[in-house]
Task: structure prediction
Amino acid sequence: MLKIEGLKVKIAGKDILNNINMEIKAGESHALFGPNGSGKTTLLMTIMGFSGYNVVEGKIFFKKREITRIPMNERANLGIGLSFQRPPNIRGINMRQMIEICNKGKGNIEVMARELNLYEFLDREINFGFSGGEIKRSELFQIMAQNPDLILLDEPESGVDLENIYLIGGVIGKLLKRNLESHELKSHKEIKRERIPAGLIITHTGYILDYVDVDQGHVLFNGELCCTGNPREIFKCIKEFGYKECLRCSF
Result:
């Protein structure tokens, strides 16, 4: 689904990511850990194709097609969706209009809105006056409407209360078809036939691991992927010893 080879990224002439190699297969969900400023958001924005993230080396492949240089809208049309950590307020367009654009008539907007407790927000301007939890739910609403093949989530549980984490975690698990209480191991042939999306989730708190069956974890430190392995073992090491000590472990 996603393959990154030797990726090096600069922002305003400064090296941010160096020699990033990662592969996410169809139906897999991966977690990305790392301290602030390590380059986690830069990686997601580069995959999505935002301007200002200058790829100076390496390649990005999506569904076996190289997308390193293609524009963001083409990546979205190919099936990549991104939920922002800090999405902007958008004046002059309401949520219903945005969801209709994302949805393209493929689903029932009212049903999706009720599932995310956003029905009363449909005719409000996007994110304007929303609480932290409401903004996160708004982002997931747009992802749900888009129904992409690869879902990129930038700290979906940050800045929200426990009630919203429960709702957001459950919706993410459903979007990725990786709810802990219902997930069953499937062969890759079964995954391909059922079209289970792939996911890459940035998390600081690790709460998302309580709701989503994540296959693999990665630690990004100083712009480099330093560790890959069992996501729960990695997060346990981070909690107990911090990132620097975690880098000395072998997973």
